[in-house]
Amino acid sequence: MPDPGMVLVFDGHNDLLFRLYRRGGPDAARSFIKGDGQGHLDMPRMREGRMVGGFFAIFAPAIEHARYAAEAKALYAEDTYDIPLQPSVPCDVAQAATLNQASKLFAIERESGGRFKIVRSAAELDRCIADGIVAAIMHIEGAEAIDPDFHLLEVLHQAGLRSLGPVWSRPNIFGNGVPFRFPSTGDIGDGLTEHGIRLIKECNARRIMIDLSHLNEKGFWDVARLSDAPLVATHSNAHAISPQSRNLTDKQLAAIRETGGMVGVCYEGSLIRPDGRVGVDAPLDMLVDHIAYLVDKLGDDKVGMGSDFDGATVPKGIGSAAGLQNLVEAMRLRGFDEPTLKKICHGNWVRVLAKTWGG
Ligand code: ZN
Predict the structure, then answer these.
(1) Is residue 233 part of a domain?
(2) How remote is the CA of residue 5 from the centroid of ligand 1, in Å?
(3) What is the 307 CA–ligand 1 centroid distance (Å)?
(4) Residue 100: its pLDDT value, please?
(5) What pLDDT is stored for residue 4 in this prediction?
(6) Number of domains in the chain
(7) What distance in angstroms lies between residue 104's CA and the mean position of ligand 1's atoms?
């Protein structure tokens, strides 16, 4: 039985698999299950924070990822910044990283003793949450691994892929990601390519959820025009509060609302803070400001969590998955009632995924 006052949290985005990929070693899955205290996410800390699952992203890094990250760090030290886009990642390079990370997700499921399940339908998601089994959605953040004939999309879908972001913040054969720029809108660069237009149709046909986070604005509107699914951004915040290129303008929020989609609020400090500063703590109340703003624009049934655990500078007030109930309490203090907290913390994801994936 959950403790009174605790609210279950289902989350829109984490980078655990990329962290384990960089960590390496044959015991990566076990380190997550037993708890290694690294990053933000492992099973013991999820249990402590009442995190019942989420989208587990697969991310293929650029060949010189570490160098680009170091160069970006120097630029982020300024009050304003415009980080150059990383180069494209070749398909074969991305496929190797993707299969490695997907195998880690399967290994976690296999070694978890029934406590962790990759979910492929809304019914499975419901059942896991009810039974206290961690529900994982296999997600790809940037579709570099997907070939233009969609052979790998077919295979990954059969394996359990249920969510895909066409781009990360870099170009690929499908479109252009939004650069990290402050202050700026996301209206930077061209929209989807011909391959990108076909990718949206292929995802719609298989009812794979399409994630708008990291798309630039032209790409966003291309998806809005083409997709027959609710519009979803798994980890983005309100541009009106923090004018960072990754955040969503009121016009984009209106489009998401119109389709019955949703936004997962992201815990990354630079997407929370009005000054866009990177690597600086964002007080919990600032994050609640975004949640309140998004609820005002979208309604309380179209806002959820999108932590970016293991990929973000998370507010010290949360710290890791173990501290999720601190955010719940901050929302409660702001005046969110219990039914609304349940919707934002897990119910809305369940609703949108059921609508996207079908019965
Ligand atoms: Zn991301």
Answers:
(1) yes
(2) 30
(3) 10
(4) 98
(5) 65
(6) 1
(7) 19
CA of 47 to the centre of ligand 1 (A): 24
Full domain range(s) for residue 292: 9-357
Kindly state whether residue 34 falls inside one of the protein's structural domains.
yes
CATH code (residue 198): 3.20.20.140
For ligand 1, the distance from its centroid to the CA atom of residue 141, given in whole angstroms, is 7
Tell me how far the alpha carbon of residue 235 lies from the centroid of ligand 1, in angstroms. Answer: 7
Q: How far is CA 153 from CA 104, 117, 146, 202, 356, in A?
A: 18, 21, 6, 9, 17
Would you state the pLDDT for residue 266?
98
Residue 128 lies in a domain: yes
Beta strands 262-265 and 303-305: pairing type?
Answer: parallel
57 Cα: distance to centroid of ligand 1 (angstroms)? 9
- Spell out the residues 6+ positions from residue 91 whose beta carbon is closer than 8 angstroms to its own: 144, 145, 146, 147, 173
CA of 282 from ligand 1 middle (Å) equals 18
Quick one: pLDDT at residue 167? 98
CA distance 161 to 47: 25
What burial letters (b/e) apply to 134-170, b meaning 16+ CB within 10 Å? bbbbbbbbbbbbbbeebebbeebbeebbbbbbbbbbb
Is 199 within the bounds of a domain? yes
Q: Specify the pLDDT at position 359.
A: 67
Ligand 1: centre distance to CA 292 (Å): 22
Q: Which of 7, 6, 12 is closest to 307 using CA atoms?
A: 12
How many angstroms does the Cα of residue 178 sit away from the middle of ligand 1? 11
- Token pair of 77 as six digits: 């030290």
User: Which structure tokens are listed for 131?
Assistant: 């039974």
Residues of the chain falling short of pLDDT 50: 1
What is the 3-state secondary structure of 142-159? CCCCCCCCCHHHHHHHHH
Instruction: Report CA(168)–ligand 1 centroid distance (Å).
Output: 7
What CA–CA distances, in Å, run from 140 to 41, 250, 268, 353?
Answer: 18, 26, 19, 16
